[in-house]
Amino acid sequence: MKPCEVPAARHPTKGVTAFGLLALAVFVWEVTATAGALRPPGAPNDAFLCYRVRDSGMPRFTPIPGVLLAGPLGTVSAQVTKRMWLCTPADVNAEGVADAATHLEGCKIQPPVADVLPRKLQLTNEFGVLSAEIGRPDCLLVPTAKSLDSEPPLPAANGVDHYACHRLRLVTDGPPFAHIEGVRLTDQFGTRYLDLTTPRHLCAPVSNDGAGIKHLSGYFLCYRAQLSLAAPHAALGPARQLHTNNEFGPGRLAAIRQAELCVPSVRTPAPRGCFSRDSSPTGFDAIVAAGFTVIDTGTDPGVVNALPAGRRALVWLGNYDNTTCTWERSDDWVVANVGLLAGNPKVEAYNLADEPRLWQCPSAVRDLAGRSALVKSLDPGRPTFAVIQPHFPENPYAPYVGTVDIIGVDRYPCSWAAGCVYAKIDETIGLLEAAKVPRYWAVVQAFADSYYRWPTVEELHEEFRHWRASRMEGYVVFSWAYLGDSLANHPDVLSALTAENGS
What we know:
alpha+beta; eight-stranded parallel beta barrel; 26 strands; disordered N terminus
């Protein structure tokens, strides 16, 4: 710190007569999906119902190697192997459709395994909040024109992005997923009620071979969809023969059945923290006013519980002493103090160490792993965190993978002697990827000392631009107060940080 291939769903209405469906609708059916729920700002305009498809006639799809996909979840070069979905614009719970002409064709992709690391994300949509771990992308959604009769022209100008769809699974420390039942859906093939049984994919916007992203904040959360047994259906399936056209060429497809409903979503804002405290009576009033959501605290439950709504604590448990190679605070102290906070929803993470030095203390990695295990045994629902100092020529992060849940990365670009060298951040991101660090937060420079200097407003924004191109899950700014100076004395930098916290 300081200097997608989707398995076919079993058809739930097989053997059920239309009369039986209607009777079920009269006596059993009750919509449990939230009616009139608001779609979060920044989400895509339309939902899409994705049908499984196969090639039917000529031309057959020819695999395309080396398609470069770059977006907020990273960059991969993938081979596009075949068509697997056709996704129609869908009216969910009578919300309407903004663009009924532009469809999405889902193509199976194969990225190199080493290109993608699992990561945890939290998504918000009209059905609530979902925490999940995502893996490799297995499907690329491509804006597409569709016709029932003949080959259509390429899609007209539209506001629909390309999306790389990552397989996902629910996090083990979160609540179980509750089925979303009775979602009323209308597309060009009819109206039906669907039960959303399992989240299957997170689709993130991507630039396809440098074409650009139109809506960087818009995602899709795609759920396995099956027909509700207890609801009437105006249509049980789509027309089977379809014609499509997009940048990968025209296609003739046979639709099989609905597979997934992709619901417009946004990522829940990442943790935005600040080290140190301000001069207000609480120690965090000005920090909160600047939009920071993670507050640097100790273990006092009164202070943690006093944090305002939407703010959580990064709880400092004392440092690792690089001169004695021991902890400043004993295991007994940790047991007593973490026990007071265990299960507290206002705890974001436990901060275990600031720059333990393996080159001074050969036991540092083992000691950090042991301290993390102790804290997790006391409060298994909260992650552990430690800032790891860059040290060369070896990769400084590789030894610490698996010791804590989240690594803090403090590579400061701006010095008195060299100015701001942003390649340092890019190099560090490369080291994190090479070490396969699963989760990390950037530690952003906003301070000065005898070696480092304050960044200007534009230099600060450039820091964030480089970090936001990485897989960082959040960030912590160093520091509100340091060496007798404070962000309060630099209102231009503070204003820039406030703007970044709101982005």
